[in-house]
Amino acid sequence: MSRTESLLQFIQNHFQTRFRFRNGFESRLTVQILTRLISEHSESLLLTRPEIERLAGCSLDAPELRREYFPKSEMTLLETALDELTTLSVMIVQDQGRTRYPLFRSVQLDQVCQRIVFNLNLDVLPQLTSWAQELQQEQERY
Asked: Is 92 left (phi over 0), alpha (psi -120 to 50) or beta?
């Protein structure tokens, strides 16, 4: 199993979801962003266009990517590619039952697609802190 596949399996197990990615661009970008969020678990994550392209492994202007999302604008391309990510929720188990929290309070994308800001729901921070330790152990195995 590759490092990316093991990360995807870790993420799917912890978020109790099965991602339905349309292509490699979406899966790489989502796994890389979630890995950063879990590892850093800051209240917000700002990504610039060059960072997004580095995480995804390709330019947002790449002809094959543009064809796949044609005729969508860069903003719509990113919104579409990240829809699996932006709708994630975290299940918190407590003595009195389970509560499902949305992962993000908001996701902001500027008009020219130069910056995207993921604002975490503060209720999920303790869970991400716990997962960060597990993720570190998982990554040390690979």
From this structure: beta
User: How much is the pLDDT for 107?
Assistant: 93
The Cα–Cα gap between 130 and 37 comes to: 12
Question: pTM of the prediction?
Answer: 0.85
- Beta-carbon contacts of 62 under 8 Å, excluding residues fewer than 6 positions away, are none
Determine contact, residues 127/90, Cβ cutoff 8 Å.
Answer: yes
How many angstroms separate the CA atoms of 141 and 41, rounded? 21
Given pLDDT bands bounded at 50, 70 and 90, which one contains residue 77?
confident
The C-alpha atoms of residue 109 and residue 75 are separated, in whole angstroms, by 7
